[in-house]
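Weekly puzzle thread! Below is a chain. First person to post its structure in token form gets bragging rights.
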Amino acid sequence: MYQEHFGLSQEPFSIAPDPRFLFLSESHNEALAHLMYGFSHGGFVLITGEVGTGKTTLLRNLLDRTPPELDVAFILNPRLTVRELLETLCDELGVTYSTSDSLSVKQYIDALNKHLLATHQAGRSTVVIIDEAQNLSPAVLEQIRLLTNLETNEKKLIRMILLGQPELGVMLAQNELRQLAQRITARYHLKPLSRDDVQAYVVHRLARAGGHPNIFSPSAIRALYSQSKGTPRLINVIADRAMLGAYVEGRYQVNATFIKRAAKEVFGDSAVPAKHWYAIAAGVALIGALGAAYLWLDNRPEQEAAPGTQAAAPGSDPGPPQLQAPARESEATPQIEYPGPTQPAAASQVQRAYDPAGIDIRRPTGGMSAIQRQAYAAVFAAWGADYRSDDPQIPCDFAPRAGLQCLSRKGGWSEIAQLNSPVVLELWDDSPAPYYAALIGAQEAYYELELDGRVQLVSPRDLRDSWLGAYVILWQTPPDYSGSLREGDRHPTVNWLRDKLYQLYPGSAGPAQGDVFGSALADLVIRFQSDEGLIADGVVGPATWIRLSDRLDLPAPKLR
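Winning reply:
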């Protein structure tokens, strides 16, 4: 909105992890050096840092520096079991393994060891990068340690880079993980930017966007450091809001007042009344958002999500947005049936041969909005919903009309396989913004990817440089859905939930409690969440609804 006003060629403070905007402070430069060290040395490299300090941006930059003889496996959803971890590693490295449910851990490791020996003989090396590693369980961490035992007489066959929040260091200090801690050959804690760094950071990003270096006054820089504490993600969000405020008031320089107002908006200081500029900006932003919100779907901090969604940490089960409830049926309705999708689409039956030489994954021509709508149209079609790629409505705003919701997530291939439902993938190339493709089917170890109107068979390895784990899944809401459910809630959907859980756990039926979410139902929900590997908090959010419908084999399109 304000680009032309300030003479910019693009947004200077987008929170997309664009490596071209990477600012290497002394701390970031040191962290990057440690990551590069992990590419060439055995053992473990550990990088920690607070939320928003730039770990993901460093990873994007690292991709551009990957040596051609190095195979890299990314694990972006660390909430995995040992079996899921090994499956993900096999998928990332292109290792063939049996899909039998009875496959043992040893058989996975044997397959990995055979692959690693073959690549070693071919002169290649392998490194595994695990992001958000503070979410790894002790059992999985121990298995990761054991993987580094795969070696020849001369060298380790696999190298490990762990990135996570500061609590990862605390975990590794535990006595039970001391063997892993002793194998860490290099560790570094990424620090926030200093006051001087903040000024250099702002000037750097403005210059990259073609702007004047003095758009932010010295007082604005001081206020920006004070409000953000040097955290790059917060700097971006506050600076972006402040530039919007200056634009609305017709100013060509951002001062400390705009920074403080923007910070109050970002941090939600409801005790301070909105100023005139903010009221105008909100109106202008609303108009722009209706036409452009989908351009940045899921391209926000981990705490945020796409329009009409709530962000979810990998493996977590957050509550969905509190939308207006649809018209309720009589609360005395004893049986509630799950409404299937309109003309549910069958799983893809197209037989295609995998042709590595013929894979063409690249950004289609045309605007990003058209590319994104085309991807959503393919996933809506799988649900039997008629969403046209030329429909001006934001895809996730259209979803409730089809009885669906969007859920933005970040994970890995094992999670995609477990969800077993078509999804929209967020893909990246050298451009400053993402593009999108639809994952609509699966055959053997390959997936059917629809991009630019073409469907091709791809492996996870084909997408390793373009997919960083962000995706959006469409899921069908239960009857009378109005949001997450928890103990103490009273809602007609409680009847449906209790009835379906009793189907899964026949011996658990208790006295009728109507539409009240009682303690007995909460215990049953926790049992189900534990069985499914979800966070067992008793709160029924999107991840629990999705897993429940899959367990019950309710009408829904499947990848397989």
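Puzzle host: Confirmed. Bonus trivia for everyone else. The two ends are 43 Å apart (CA to CA).
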